[in-house]
Design goal:
The chain contains 31 helices and twelve strands. It is of the alpha/beta class and about 675 residues long. Among the domains are: about 190 residues, no CATH class; about 220 residues, EAL domain (TIM Barrel, Alpha-Beta Barrel). Helix 4 packs across helix 5, helix 12 crosses helix 16 and helix 24 runs parallel beside helix 25. The two termini are about 60 Å apart.
Length: about 675
């Protein structure tokens, strides 16, 4: 269950939700400031005209929040699954308008407020992204293949048919969801019409906080969906639980300290126990507003919304407070007096006035807050280190324009607790930081034919351009691969090679390029789709270099993928052959065409035994009809040695180091002096 929650929290969907709500933080702060200013002026009965203007502004901004949140979620999710943002936003809005119009007796009465207040707008945006992605990737609906048309124009022309299909599918989905929701809510409303106020307030506390947890305004949504539907059986704002204690005031005094989910309990827990810098910053920003029971900043910027890990205490801390409060009221521990109560009156102060200065009541409220802090504590502290790594993963994902591949790795890192693993995480942080501060590049090292003396192909090699402009080798790669980051690195390399080959082909330069891959990544269906998507048009020019030792563990599964890739013309070579403990039987099974003999084997060939071993490896591979590449050739003696063994392809500094893409086009093989 824990792994399920962690996998969900790290999914593309959840990351998009968090990014969307964080992007709305400036809007939430402005909304909170207007709400607070209006409420304070109302309490102290100051500047009534100004107070009325501020109230209208706050109300209008509050109405705008729901559609803004839907648009932000649609924007971030579309971007992260690589579909057209504008197409998704347009389809989502259009689909909702269609559904609303179909449900109206008089379509001429449709207004903007009806659309922006419709809670199905978020669903419409998400459904549009999913449906459009499905039609883009699963259905072969592309009808422009000319290379003379820009990729941007082609992509949006290809959206025509998927968009038309989406306008049919999405409204049907929204209608189905609407009927299902009505089916579920109807018996609930019937039950609520018969239960007492205590049961209603418990359900209200739970459901309103649940609505907060899925990105809706909790109290308002519950009022619209439930309270308005039970025909005023219980008026939440006026029904007395005790003398001078209506239900709404009860919630302020005993349940939601600082706002939904007992906001103050979470803020204190974060400030005391969390080591996550983002969470602490948001808690500090939210604290002044929580003082006046305004909690939107914390809910949407931390966030609580769609945060599986924090949603559990967010739901149950207020519910426990509610039950304790009901017990206190039933036992008549305190007497409540009539006073000008407002929801923005700070905690401790509100119960002081409500009980005519009873300090025991104040201490009771303080104790409930501290109990809530204790209940939040394990959930806050559990993910501090993991949240830091997850934040770094998101930065790297954005840096490399990655999507689901990074998210599939999240749970692998979220369970690392021991000291040795923490050191490994620190090394990963450092590696990610270096990559984020610099720029990843691909250099290309030539493979030269000894028969023709011409360029035979290239190997793409990873490089990092530091902030000072210096280009260095991939010293960071081992740390990233050790922690499971070979998948996003391979994804970036595949995308970059596909783009570069397309550009070269347009310039009349069409070399064959080999790419170093971790074979285990071929077990990820998403990676295979990504690879085919970016290389299918240049497949005949691409060769995948697989590390021999990594291939062995899942050879059967990987072999099936290699056979599939060969249908697109993509070749396979075994890289670094001869290192470690080679399994010779592998050579009879793998769908490879080329064997690259590792440089270390050539270096050892200076000795008699090493020379014999190198010779026998060459003879065996040639008898099995493999193309041979001698790696790491640096001297004339090594050239003569491998040439005498019938090795025709050479790669190494003897001919050239790895070169930038812009230089490799004009490369002409030249032999260098020893």
């Amino acid at each position: 269950m824990k792994l399920y929650f962690e996998r969900t929290a790290g999914s593309t969907f959840m990351i998009s939700i968090r990014e969307a709500f964080i992007s709305l933080l400036p809007f939430l702060i402005i909304l909170s400031l207007f709400t607070l200013s209006s409420s304070l002026l109302s309490i102290f009965q100051l500047l009534p005209d100004t107070q009325r203007i501020l109230y209208e502004i706050a109300y209008s901004l509050n109405v705008c929040f729901a559609p803004l949140a839907a648009v932000a979620i649609g924007f971030q999710f579309s971007k992260n699954i690589n579909v057209s943002v504008m197409a998704v936003l347009a389809l989502g809005l259009s689909s909702l308008v269609v559904v609303v119009l179909l449900g109206m007796e008089d379509p001429s009465k449709l207004d903007v407020e009806t659309i922006v207040k419709d809670p199905r707008l978020i669903l419409a945006m998400l459904a549009s992204a999913y449906v459009l992605k499905f039609f883009e990737t699963k259905a072969n609906l592309r009808f422009i293949h000319s290379s003379s048309v820009s990729q941007h124009l082609k992509r949006h022309f290809h959206l025509l048919i998927p968009s038309l299909l989406s306008v049919i599918v999405i409204p049907m989905t929204l209608v189905a969801v609407t009927y299902f929701a009505s089916f579920v809510l109807k018996p609930l409303i019937n039950i609520l019409s018969e239960v007492g106020p205590e049961s209603l307030i418990s359900l209200r506390v739970f459901l309103s906080n649940l609505f907060w947890g899925i990105g809706l305004h909790g109290a308002n949504t519950f009022h619209i969906l439930v309270e308005q539907s039970i025909d005023g059986v219980v008026n939440y704002y006026t029904f007395p639980l005790a003398a001078n204690l209506p239900m709404s005031q009860f919630s302020d005094l005993f349940v939601n300290f600082g706002g939904g989910g007992a906001t103050w309990c979470l803020i204190i827990a974060v400030l005391l126990f969390s080591k996550d810098a983002h969470s602490r910053r948001i808690a500090m920003i939210a604290a002044p507003f929580a003082l006046f029971n305004i909690n939107e900043i914390l809910i949407f910027a931390l966030p609580i919304a769609f945060n599986i890990r924090l949603l559990v205490p967010f739901l149950f801390v207020p519910l426990i407070n509610c039950w304790v409060g009901l017990f206190i009221v039933e036992q008549q521990w305190f007497e409540f007096v009539s006073y000008q109560h407002s929801w923005v009156v700070p905690d401790l102060v509100n119960i002081y006035f409500a009980t005519n200065g009873n300090m025991l009541a104040v201490l009771t409220q303080l104790l409930l807050i501290l109990v809530g802090v204790a209940l939040y504590w394990p959930f806050v502290i559990a993910g501090s280190v993991e949240e830091q790594l997850q934040e770094a993963e998101q930065v790297l994902r954005k840096k490399l324009s990655l999507r689901d591949d990074m998210d599939l790795l999240s749970e692998r890192h979220l369970v690392k607790k021991h000291q040795e693993q923490r050191r490994s995480i620190k090394a990963t942080f450092n590696a990610i930081d270096d990559v984020n501060k610099g720029q990843l590049l691909l250099y290309y090292q030539p493979k030269v034919s000894l028969v023709s003396g011409q360029l035979h192909g290239l190997e793409a090699l990873l490089r990092l351009k530091r902030a000072d402009g210096k280009v260095v080798g991939p010293y960071f790669l081992d740390a990233l691969q050790k922690e499971g980051f070979s998948l996003p690195i391979d994804n970036w390399v595949v995308q970059e090679v596909g783009s570069t080959l397309t550009e070269w082909n347009q310039q009349g330069f069409s070399p064959k390029v080999s790419i170093n891959l971790d074979p285990n990544n071929l077990l990820h269906p998403g990676f295979v789709k990504h690879l085919i998507q970016h290389l299918q048009n240049v497949g005949e020019q691409v060769e995948l270099e697989l590390i021999e030792s990594s291939y062995m563990e899942y050879s059967t599964e990987i072999e099936k993928v290699l056979i599939e890739l060969q249908e697109y013309g993509i070749g396979v070579s075994i890289d670094d052959f001869g290192t470690g403990f080679s399994c010779l039987s592998m050579l009879t099974k793998i769908s490879a065409q080329t064997i690259k003999i590792d440089k270390s084997m050539l270096d050892e060939a200076q000795d008699e035994k090493g020379a014999i071993l190198y010779k026998e490896i060459c003879r065996m591979c040639q008898n099995l009809n493999f193309e041979l590449v001698a790696e790491g050739v640096e001297t004339k003696n090594q050239i003569d040695f491998v040439q005498a063994l019938g090795v025709e392809l050479i790669q190494g500094w003897y001919f050239s180091p790895a070169l930038p893409a812009e230089e490799i086009i004009s490369y002409q093989p030249q032999q260098h002096n020893d």
